[in-house]
């Protein structure tokens, strides 16, 4: 069932940090502190009027027109999360030559899934509009998300309603990346997700898998082999099969050595040895062959 709350991710980070001799600190703070160099950051950039409509921008020290630009959405059952906790994502990818915008968005119970997706589309529109000012090419725009954030990225990439409301189209994306995302999760069991999706009045077209027909922008779908939060066979492999059948280029892989929380934590230096998540993502964004 979709999207662990941040406490689960934090617990996974902390356990992994302890295994590396880093116990005694918050797992998230460890990852942020050791994420790497070779980048610069702009904090608290507004993409809308609401206080939750803010993002942090991470830029490589050297930016060229071919530099990929990623808008990243975190998870948290659509009811919790802070962009500051995911600085390690922006720093890890920026140190690898990728520009990243880590976006906050409004949360349930204040809003429902439709408003959440509208916020994510607005953040994407900001990235599209600002790309030239950042020295980037709009044609290299990607979406990426973990857990519930993977759902957000999938819906924007697959269901044209959301980007079209922001004056964009899924075809303008260079691609998207999902880490342990829930793409097919009816009926809803998770209590927080039930609120966000007005269960049992959740429409079938709220599911990314319902929009996988027709050729879409290429995708990278990664998930833990053993995920106790989101079923990787149903969600990741199920969506991948549907996309492939429709002619969409998609790479999908289930990874040993990580769980639902640590699959995103593995982007940061302390946890990279758990699984090649960063190598997979960077190769996809650079349009290079996947790592061996």
From TrEMBL:
<dbReference type="Pfam" id="PF20434">
    <property type="entry name" value="BD-FAE"/>
</dbReference>
<dbReference type="InterPro" id="IPR006311">
    <property type="entry name" value="TAT_signal"/>
</dbReference>
<dbReference type="InterPro" id="IPR050300">
    <property type="entry name" value="GDXG_lipolytic_enzyme"/>
</dbReference>
<feature type="domain" description="BD-FAE-like">
    <location>
        <begin position="55"/>
        <end position="161"/>
    </location>
</feature>
<dbReference type="GO" id="GO:0016787">
    <property type="term" value="F:hydrolase activity"/>
</dbReference>
<protein>
    <submittedName>
        <fullName>Alpha/beta hydrolase</fullName>
    </submittedName>
</protein>
<dbReference type="InterPro" id="IPR049492">
    <property type="entry name" value="BD-FAE-like_dom"/>
</dbReference>
<keyword id="KW-0378">Hydrolase</keyword>
<dbReference type="InterPro" id="IPR029058">
    <property type="entry name" value="AB_hydrolase_fold"/>
</dbReference>
């Amino acid at each position: 069932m979709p999207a662990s709350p941040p406490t689960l991710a934090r617990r996974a980070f902390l356990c992994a940090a302890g295994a590396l001799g880093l116990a005694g600190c918050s797992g998230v703070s460890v990852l942020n502190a050791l994420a790497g160099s070779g980048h610069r950051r702009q904090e608290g950039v507004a993409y809308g009027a609401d206080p939750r409509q803010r993002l942090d921008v991470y830029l490589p020290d050297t930016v060229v027109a071919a530099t990929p630009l990623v808008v990243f959405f975190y998870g948290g059952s659509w009811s919790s999360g802070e962009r500051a906790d995911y600085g390690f994502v922006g720093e890890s990818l920026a140190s690898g030559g990728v520009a990243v915008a880590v976006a906050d968005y409004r949360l349930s119970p204040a809003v429902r899934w439709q408003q959440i997706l509208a916020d994510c589309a607005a953040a994407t529109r900001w990235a599209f509009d600002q790309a030239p000012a950042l020295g980037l090419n709009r044609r290299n725009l990607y979406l990426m998300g973990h857990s519930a954030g993977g759902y957000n990225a999938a819906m924007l990439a697959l269901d044209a309603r959301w980007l079209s409301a922001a004056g964009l189209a899924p075809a303008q994306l260079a691609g998207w990346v999902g880490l342990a995302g829930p793409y097919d999760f009816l009926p809803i069991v998770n209590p927080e997700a039930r609120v966000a999706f007005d269960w049992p009045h959740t429409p079938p077209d709220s599911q990314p898998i319902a929009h996988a027909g027709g050729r879409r922008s290429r995708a990278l779908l990664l998930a833990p082999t053993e995920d106790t939060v989101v079923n990787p066979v149903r969600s990741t492999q199920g969506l991948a099969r549907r996309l492939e059948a429709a002619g969409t280029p998609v790479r999908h892989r289930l990874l040993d050595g990580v769980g639902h929380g640590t699959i995103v934590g593995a982007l940061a230096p302390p946890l990279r040895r758990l699984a090649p998540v960063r190598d997979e993502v960077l190769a996809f964004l650079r349009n290079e062959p996947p790592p061996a």
